[in-house]
Design goal:
about 0% strand; mainly alpha; single chain; about 120 residues; 5 helices
Length: about 120
């Protein structure tokens, strides 16, 4: 397995788990209230993460355009998550994961674009 595919799988599994928890976890429902976001925004966020994660994996085996769109979408989603965390003044330990995933998805988008 290449490093490229390993990063896609790790990223996708993590974001798939987070997306599913956004949709179904009571804890995440409470977190989104703390973020100042409503239930509809939580559902959109969770759905976008699940679709992005699936898009990265499926696109890797079918069409890199799908993976590119997913990586760009996830990068933007993580940027928004990072901004929300800064806005509510979360500690660095809670803010850093969104920043790291933003950078990871940016790097994947660049790598995918170079392969197209």
């Amino acid at each position: 397995m290449s490093i490229f595919l390993a990063l896609i799988l790790i990223n996708s599994i993590a974001l798939l788990g987070y997306g599913i928890s956004c949709l179904f976890s009571v804890k995440m429902k409470t977190e989104f209230v703390r973020f100042g976001l409503n239930s509809q925004q939580r559902i959109i966020t969770g759905t976008a993460q699940v679709l992005g994660a699936v898009g990265l994996i499926v696109g890797s085996f079918t069409s890199l355009i799908i993976s590119l769109a997913a990586a760009i979408g996830l990068c933007l989603l993580m940027l928004m998550g990072f901004i929300v965390r800064i806005k509510i003044k979360d500690p660095l330990s809670e803010t850093l994961p969104s920043f790291i995933f933003m950078l990871l998805n940016l790097a994947l988008a660049i790598a995918i674009q170079q392969r197209i």
